[in-house]
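Contributing new records

If you add data, match the layout below exactly. Sequence lines come first and carry their own label; structure lines follow with theirs. Keep one chain per record. Anything else will be rejected by the validation script.
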Amino acid sequence: MTTFIMTGKYSAEAVKQISGARTVKGTKIVKQCGGKITAVYATMGKADLLLITEFPGVGEAMKASVALNQAMGISFTTIPALPIADFDKLVGGKL
């Protein structure tokens, strides 16, 4: 599984629908797309939400991002993340 960081921005309509039930619905959507959520944070600034997720690959992460937007009106930016120890091994200081 690959880790992805997803940042979400509520639409004006989505803000009106904030609820625990919608959080459960979002978790189910991610699971249906083959992923899992390891952490969720409400944030202030450019993003309203920060999710730490795991998916088998980029395709599943993209599918979840679009499905969440369609179902909830929350626009997500989804980026892969690599633990720094793995990154150091991969790059090996030879850039």
